[in-house]
Amino acid sequence: MAPLTRSVEDTVATLPDAVDPLALSLNENPFSPLPTVRSALISAIDSANRYPEFLPERLRRLIADRIGMAENQVVIGPGATGVAMQLLHAVTEPGDRMVMGTPTFDGYPIFAQMARLQPVMVPLDEHGHHDLDALADAAVDAKVVVLCRPHNPTGTLESAPAVERFLAAVPRDTIVMLDEAYIEFVAPAFRLDAASLIRKYPNVLVLRTFSKAYGLAGLRIGYGFGSADLTEKLWRMQLPFGMDSTSLVAVAASYDAERQLQRRIRVIAAERRYLRMRLRAMGVYVTEGHANFVYLPPAGTPWQDVFDPAGMRVRHYKDGGVRITVGDRWSTRAVLAAVAAGR
Predict the structure, then answer these.
(1) Considering just the CA atoms, what is the radius of gyration of the chain in Å?
(2) With 0-12 CB in 10 A as exposed, 13-18 as middle and 19+ as buried, what is 63?
């Protein structure tokens, strides 16, 4: 483990400083946009007086080509959250049930409220995983069910066979939102074959984003893909002129900088492992996460009493658990110091 730690420290030292190393509540990428992406964005400012495309056809085509999907199977939105709302507007009516695990991404209960849906909260199991049997049972009379993989906030992964059994148990007229916002941080061996899944289960919509691994949270670029019948319904909900004119430029430049991007992902994933290892060495239980954050279940000392005095902005949950974004090495040291001082 020591050689890995030294390598990570050397690599982190060559990367741009985090803007705010104590802002660890939103799972933002700690590093500024890649230099080539930044240059492309600066150049795009000269066209800011012009409207973007009426509908983001070119961005849709670029992403579809990249992920190996037909163009009409891809939808675009202002972040994955925008795509989620397009789905709810397209397939639900007020009063329909929307099923999700709890705790979950903060947005999903809000989206249910905005669409005037009835949220159905299914508790996670004691290890921070979805209770897939209970989730499938609740989905029987629901219009939408959410499956996050990795899960937010615990970072846990359901196995591919378990996901298959879950999808087979969900009625075909219930839409499954498969949220893969953190997929780039998952080791390739543990990723789902999403393209195969949507061929087999046309009621599945996969959500992804450029906000996390790509570090473009401020530009609000997300996408979804699924069966053509499903995505056609969402495309009808596409807001005219709804995507920033820099979106296409930023995505194209990010794809061109894939090697540098993968290097940053490796750094963040290694920092996640390092933070988890150090916390466990201090006697803190940490879930086996696969995203760019760590999750600490409720403990004897309230986590709020640990991190608030240190001035750290982390995400606290009603049950007492806490989610901490993985930042740079400075942030990691601050987290460890706060835990050491507060427990």
Answers:
(1) 20
(2) buried
Residue 343, pLDDT score: 75
Long-range Cβ pairs for the range 39-44 (8 Å, 24+): 39/253, 40/249, 40/250, 40/252, 40/253, 41/246, 41/249, 41/250, 41/253, 43/249, 44/245, 44/246, 44/249, 44/250
- Spatial distance between the Cα atoms of 62 and 221, rounded to a whole number of angstroms: 13
- Angle of the 246-256 helix axis to the 258-281 helix axis, nearest 10: 80
* Euclidean distance between CA atoms 310 and 339, whole angstroms: 9
Record the tokens describing residue 291, joined without a space: 């995203």
Exposure b/e, 82-92, CB count within 10 A at least 16 = b? bbbbbbbebbb
- pLDDT category at 17 given cuts 50, 70, 90 is very low
pLDDT band at residue 8 using 50, 70 and 90 as cut-offs: very low
Residue 5: what pLDDT?
A: 37
Task: Pull the structure tokens for residue 117.
Answer: 């849906």
CA distance 174 to 180: 19
Q: At what angle do helices 258-281 and 329-342 cross, to 10 degrees?
A: 20
Q: CA–CA distance from 52 to each of 55, 107, 139, 225, 244 (Å)?
A: 8, 27, 39, 22, 6
Residue 74 CA, chain-centre distance (Å), reads: 18
Structural domains of the chain sorted by starting position, each given as residue range(s) with its CATH number in brackets: 2-32+258-342 (3.90.1150.10), 37-256 (3.40.640.10)
- In angstroms, the CA 101 to CA 21 distance is 30
- For residue 78, how far is the Cα from the chain centroid? 14
Q: Please check whether residue 41 is in contact with residue 297, taking contact to mean a CB–CB distance below 8 angstroms.
A: no
User: 91: which 2 tokens?
Assistant: 């397939």
pLDDT in tens, 311-328: 999 999 999 999 999 999
Cα distance between residue 207 and residue 204, in whole Å: 10
Q: What is the pLDDT of residues 174-195, one digit of tens each?
A: 999 999 999 999 999 999 999 9
**Which phi and psi angles does 121 have, rounded to 5°?**
-100, 120
